[in-house]
Design brief:
With about 120 residues, this protein is an all-alpha fold. It contains two helices and no strands. The mean pLDDT is about 85.
């Protein structure tokens, strides 16, 4: 019984395999080799164009990253210069206040001497 079942299963598998193979081959009967080669060439051209577009996009991205880095550095330098200018202005304001205070003291001394 087991041998019979095994034999039936093997026959069924072989029949299924050959039916599937026949279906696959029937799909390719209408195609010509030249059609397949032409399609492969068209596919290769599409892939090549896509590769060039990808390369261009990578170059554009690298350029944008470089420009962004340069802009960031310029902004950092400008910020530092601005901070230095603010510090210098504060120092000047302090010096002006000190000078005005000294001038007021000097005026008081002159007024005291005049009396």
């Amino acid at each position: 019984l087991i041998r019979t079942l095994r034999g039936l299963m093997e026959e069924h598998q072989q029949e299924l395999f050959y039916n599937t193979l026949e279906e696959v081959l029937s799909d390719f009967r209408g195609l010509k080799i030249s059609d397949l080669l032409k399609q492969n060439q068209e596919d290769a051209e599409k892939i090549s164009k896509l590769g060039l577009e990808l390369l261009k996009a990578k170059q554009d991205l690298a350029t944008a990253i470089r420009e962004e880095k340069q802009a960031s550095e310029a902004l950092s330098q400008t910020t530092k210069m601005w901070q230095n200018a603010e510090s210098f202005c504060k120092d000047l304001e302090q010096s002006l206040e000190d000078a005005q205070s000294e001038l007021a003291d000097a005026k008081e001394q002159v007024d005291a001497l005049k009396k």
